[in-house]
């Protein structure tokens, strides 16, 4: 969100008050205010304090600095001390004891090798220093407490002084009500790239972008995101850091856009909390962030095999399902999981959590027959209940749905007629929903595709817990996926739990696996999907998947075959579509050969993939890695977004052209092509490769040594 008019002025509709001088500092013991550690508290006024008269009619920001883990420093900024009723992300506290020092000119808090230093009685600014080197900071007038007067008639609103921050006065001298925002700006070192913010499908390097972290159901070709994460990672030359903004409500980032050498972030309300996380490498930063937000969970080994879906709006019944499975096995294509999409339930009744008896008259027998073939079974669910569903009446009568402010059930016709939304802040609603799923597990279902969770009301909405709807919006997916995942842990065992989730937020890596949402059956959408996945992998997540062949439209044989290669060299691999079945023989015979070859290739690589998955979970880093993450010292990798490392040793460059042409980059080292056996020794400068591949191959290299 932009508040300024160029570098020097503010926009007319905003009163921007910045701390100009820190006039007092103190140590706060952690038990006093329930912080993660002993804290440094600094009070800073919105004008300079030259005499006692300057202590009148002036606003101030209360800044509290603390540390939940080594090399991690949290900063809380408060204008007025109000409870915003936003849900709080579940952060891990490592019980560190930071060093705090207060002197006449500077106050510092040090955690590990990271130090925050704030100037006292001078121009207010903050420096973050890692191993004695400044990595970022909040410069003079970067912090701000902002009143938004755009809802008022500006010509009739008088304010005493936009510099001193006096009260905003109406025509009769009464205090006017305004929207309020808190802002911080952290400087960027020259030549640094910014990554992250969750699953973003635009340019991989985020410099110059405006980003709002609000979960939306916008497909993979727009600026919207299913998985918005208020975290970014940047740095250079062995000194890297991440910034995590601990706000569940939508937060706006200006990434070197509004002020070109800073990242600005702001949120509505009277407070703002963020963490700076420092490390020697991008991996160490992402690892520390991953651990701070709950760490990762290792999915069961069977989830890494091939998933086959009924697709969405296709016609399917037991006969169709068994013909697909038998067809795959007859063609020597191993399948690990069969997925039933939406129409396992009757249309217009999603979700009723009951099998459509016309298409599936014997669901228990069907599930047993699938298990007898060695398959696991996944079924689609979502947290919305259609008015036609028998569950709607129960949920309405018992108060299990999100409501309007007038007490009526919040409904709309998007997706299904009269949809209501399950309110997971209500413990009874959560238990009810879990009970519905337990019935399916008792039948033989093994896991769930937890679809949706993004279109959650933010206005005229009341949650059971009384939470702020703006904060509950992004947090909804956390409650939803957690409820389903914990049920699976309880019923299937902790080592067997897995969901296939679309939406996500901070800490979502605890409930794997996530996939990339509704893409198109086009080559550019392959690239969009991969960019989104690599951005998510730069944001603390460990596992990721995507719809092989694209979700929308009919896939051409070439799209299907190229996406099959890409999909079976991803963390998790699932065929899925909208209007078209995704079994290979419906495309051409070569598609059968491609599917067989790359399914078997992934199974042959499973000892490597699964061991790398275990190491990734333990380290808190992604299995599918952007190139810069594995080769941070090689500047040529900084912007690469059409190739990736699968673990530490395997490089994958999916082919995204009709003709089979592909450009990719090999970093310095000795590499062996896994499919054709070539060995290439690359000098310290790295090498760009331009090659052409048929459908039975692609750039797939193993790093030797």
TrEMBL record:
Domain Glycoside hydrolase family 31 N-terminal: 63-254
Keywords: Glycosidase, Hydrolase
InterPro entries: Alpha-glycosidase_related, Gal_mutarotase_sf_dom, GH, Glyco_hydro_31_C, Glyco_hydro_31_N_dom, Glyco_hydro_31_TIM, Glyco_hydro_b
Catalytic reactions on record: Hydrolysis of terminal, non-reducing alpha-D-xylose residues with release of alpha-D-xylose
Gene Ontology molecular functions: alpha-D-xyloside xylohydrolase; carbohydrate binding
EC number: 3.2.1.177
Domain (Glycoside hydrolase family 31 TIM barrel): residue spans on this chain: 297-612
Listed Pfam families: Gal_mutarotas_2, Glyco_hydro_31_2nd, Glyco_hydro_31_3rd
Glycosyl hydrolase family 31 C-terminal domain mapped to chain residues: 620-701
GO biological process, one term: carbohydrate metabolic process
Top-level taxon: Bacteria
Membrane-spanning segments: none
Family: Belongs to the glycosyl hydrolase 31 family.
PANTHER family linked to this entry: GLYCOSIDASE FAMILY 31, MYOGENESIS-REGULATING GLYCOSIDASE
Name of this protein: alpha-D-xyloside xylohydrolase
Organism: Weissella cibaria
């Amino acid at each position: 969100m932009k508040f300024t008019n160029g570098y020097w002025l503010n926009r007319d509709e905003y009163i921007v008050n910045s701390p100009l001088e820190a006039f007092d500092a103190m140590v706060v013991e952690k038990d006093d205010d329930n912080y993660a550690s002993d804290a440094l508290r600094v009070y800073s006024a919105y004008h300079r304090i030259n005499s006692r008269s300057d202590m009148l009619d002036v606003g101030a920001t209360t800044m509290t600095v603390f540390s939940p883990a080594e090399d991690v420093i949290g900063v809380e900024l408060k204008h007025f001390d109000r409870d915003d009723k936003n849900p709080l992300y579940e952060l891990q506290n490592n019980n560190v004891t930071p060093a705090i020092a207060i002197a006449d000119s500077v106050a510092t808090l040090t955690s590990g090798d990271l130090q925050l230093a704030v100037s006292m009685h001078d121009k207010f600014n903050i420096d973050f220093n890692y191993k004695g080197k400044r990595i970022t900071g909040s410069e003079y007038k970067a912090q701000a407490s902002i009143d938004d007067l755009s809802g008022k008639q500006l010509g009739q609103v008088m304010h005493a002084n936009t510099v001193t921050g006096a009260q905003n006065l109406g025509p009769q001298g009464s205090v006017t009500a305004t929207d309020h925002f808190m802002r911080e700006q952290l400087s960027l070192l020259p030549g640094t790239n910014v990554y992250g913010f969750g699953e973003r499908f635009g340019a991989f390097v985020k410099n110059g972008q405006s980003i709002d972290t609000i979960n939306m159901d916008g497909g993979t070709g727009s600026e919207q995101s299913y998985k918005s994460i208020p975290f970014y990672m940047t740095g250079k030359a062995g000194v890297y850091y991440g910034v995590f903004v601990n706000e569940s409500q939508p937060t706006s980032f200006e990434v070197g856009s509004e002020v070109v050498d800073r990242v600005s972030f702001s949120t509505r309300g009277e407070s703002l909390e963020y963490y700076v996380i420092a490390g020697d490498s991008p991996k160490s930063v992402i690892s520390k962030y991953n651990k701070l937000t709950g760490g990762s969970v290792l999915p069961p080994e069977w989830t890494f095999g091939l998933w086959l879906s009924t697709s969405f709006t296709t016609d399917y019944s037991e006969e169709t399902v068994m013909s697909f499975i038998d067809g795959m096995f007859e063609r020597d294509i191993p399948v690990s999981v069969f997925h039933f999409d939406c129409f396992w339930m009757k249309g217009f009744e999603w979700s009723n959590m009951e099998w459509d008896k016309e298409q599936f008259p014997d669901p228990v027998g069907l599930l047993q027959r699938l298990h007898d073939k060695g398959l696991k079974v996944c079924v689609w669910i979502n947290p919305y209940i259609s008015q036609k569903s028998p569950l709607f009446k129960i949920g309405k009568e018992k108060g299990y749905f999100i409501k309007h402010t007038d007490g009526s059930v919040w409904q709309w016709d998007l997706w299904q007629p009269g949809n209501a939304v399950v309110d997971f802040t209500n413990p009874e609603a959560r238990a009810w929903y879990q009970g519905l799923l337990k019935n399916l597990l008792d039948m033989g279902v093994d896991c769930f595709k937890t679809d949706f969770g993004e279109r959650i009301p933010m206005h005229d909405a009341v949650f059971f817990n009384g939470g702020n709807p703006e904060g509950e919006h992004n947090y909804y997916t956390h409650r939803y996926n957690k409820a389903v995942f914990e049920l699976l842990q309880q019923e299937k065992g902790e080592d067997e739990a897995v969901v296939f989730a679309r939406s996500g937020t901070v800490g979502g890596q605890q409930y794997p696996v996530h996939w990339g949402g509704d893409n198109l059956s086009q080559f550019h959408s392959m690239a969009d999907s991969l960019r989104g996945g690599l951005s998510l992998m730069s944001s603390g997540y460990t596992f990721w998947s995507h719809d092989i062949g694209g979700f929308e439209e009919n896939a051409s044989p070439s799209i299907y075959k190229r996406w099959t290669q890409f999909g079976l060299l991803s963390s998790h691999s699932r065929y899925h579509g909208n209007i078209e079945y995704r079994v290979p023989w419906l495309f051409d015979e070569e598609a059968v050969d491609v599917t067989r070859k790359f399914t078997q290739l992934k199974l042959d690589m499973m000892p490597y993939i699964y061991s790398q998955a275990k190491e990734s979970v333990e380290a808190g880093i992604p299995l599918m890695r952007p190139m810069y993450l594995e080769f941070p010292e090689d500047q040529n990798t900084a912007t690469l977004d059409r190739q990736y490392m699968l673990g530490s040793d395997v490089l994958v460059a999916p082919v995204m052209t009709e003709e089979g042409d592909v450009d990719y980059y090999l970093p310095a080292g000795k590499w062996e092509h896994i499919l054709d056996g070539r060995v290439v020794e690359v000098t310290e400068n790295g090498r760009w490769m331009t090659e052409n591949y048929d459908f039975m191959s692609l750039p797939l290299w193993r790093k030797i040594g």
